[in-house]
Specification:
Number of domains: 2
Strand content: 5-15%
Number of strands: 10
CATH class of the largest domain: Alpha Beta
Bound molecules: phosphoenolpyruvate, manganese (II) ion
Number of helices: 14
Radius of gyration: 24 Å
Length: 372
């Protein structure tokens, strides 16, 4: 949805980006732009279309931290004058990622409006300190992406390091966490972490980055909607005029047209702009419980898959589904493990009785299938 500017903008976003006062705005608030700047034409055509859709803050990668070497690592300072030009032409503001003091110096010289710290930098306290020190005495909004690993302390610590040098216009970007088990997402959202982050730092703007969580176009909308349902303050979405030909993150970028469609389809929950989730502690905790329960079911389903694997193995070897020693071993070890987690051993025994029953039922079913 396209809005008239500040009037209907989230107050946290207004404080963080006061220079957007006379710009158009979208509901929800969206930062969009290419993963990387590639050519002046790619940049200008992407930005002009995004600006036409009401996007007033453009993201664009110039220094690209790549996990593996020999990929495209960004054009560096060469792209900065192009950003200055597109900014003037399209009356937008620009955000870039910085990972060293040199990047900061170059970005400030090019009058970049917003800086962000990437996931591979947040994870390293030395890097965050270097960036913070290079910003001492500068008044510029800084967004901090979550670290690549699910460590809330590192994320919080990055804010503390930036605050220590006097920066006070800060926002968080949730881009998901590395997880080799999760084959659906590029980075697992682990929603309980940003929720916990918001509980601890309710005054900070919290933005969701569905592009890097999903890793694929088709999933971007669902993740963005989930973030809005959880009362995030805005979204950062990668957009490119020709996503399939993008030099980085081709699979996850949306054309400006597809982004517009997504914006129109997203459902904005009314309470999103009325007080923060954190004002209602009970609601916060319930959301965390929902996420933990989702995780419990995911773990349970992984366990059942393993049980089925063993079932097929037993079938191949003509071995009975129920083995007393194994069941006794489970019954004696799990209540002990429970104590280490401060859980009631009796309740845990009961829980495993039910799980084991279901595993036996499943394996028997598998063995029986061999009869026909
Ligand atoms: C990016 O925004 O293009 C990027 C490299 O993100 P992240 O730090 O989340 O991997
Ligand atoms: Mn990217």
């Amino acid at each position: 949805m396209l809005l008239g500017g500040f009037l209907s903008m989230n107050p946290g976003i207004q404080q963080l980006f006061p220079f957007l006062e006379n710009s158009p705005s979208t509901a929800p608030f969206i930062i969009a732009g290419p993963c990387s700047v590639e050519t002046p034409e790619q940049l200008e055509s992407t930005v002009s279309q995004l600006a036409g859709n009401g996007i007033s803050l453009i993201r664009a990668g110039v220094w690209k931290p790549r996990t593996r070497p020999n990929g495209f690592e960004g054009l560096g300072s060469l792209a900065l004058p192009w950003l200055q030009e597109t900014k003037k032409k399209n009356k937008v503001k620009i955000a870039v990622e910085v990972a060293t003091a040199y990047h900061v110096e170059e970005a400030l010289r090019a009058e970049i409006d917003v800086l962000w710290i990437g996931a591979r930098s947040t994870v390293n306290p030395f890097t965050v300190t270097e960036i913070a020190e290079s910003l001492r005495g500068v008044d510029i909004p800084v967004l901090v992406k979550n670290p690549i690993n699910p460590d809330l302390g590192l994320w919080l610590g990055a804010f503390e390091r930036l605050e220590q040098v006097g920066l006070n216009r800060l926002g968080a970007v949730h881009r998901g966490f590395s997880n080799f088990r999760d084959t659906l997402h590029r980075n697992s959202p682990m929603w309980e972490l940003p929720i916990e982050f918001r509980t601890l730092r309710p005054e900070l703007v919290l933005i969701n980055d569905p592009s890097h969580i999903s890793g694929k176009r088709a999933l971007v909308k669902g993740i963005a909607q989930h973030a809005l349902d959880l009362n995030f303050d805005g979204l950062m979405i990668e957009s490119h005029v020709n996503p399939d030909q993008a030099w980085t993150d081709a699979a996850q970028q949306l054309t400006p047209g597809d982004l517009k469609k997504l914006m129109d389809e997203l459902i904005i929950r009314n309470e999103r702009f009325e007080g923060r989730v954190s004002s209602n502690i009970l609601e916060d905790i319930r959301q965390q419980i929902d996420e933990v329960d989702r995780g419990l079911l995911e773990v349970l389903s992984r366990r059942m898959h393993l049980v089925e694997k063993i079932g097929s193995y037993k079938k191949q070897n003509n071995v009975a589904a129920f083995q007393l020693e194994r069941w006794q071993e489970i019954l004696s070890s799990r209540p002990n493990w429970a104590k280490a987690f401060q859980l009631n051993p009796e309740v845990v025994t009961e829980l495993f009785r039910i799980i084991h029953q279901e595993s036996i039922r499943k394996q028997t079913e598998l063995l029986d299938e061999s009869k026909d």
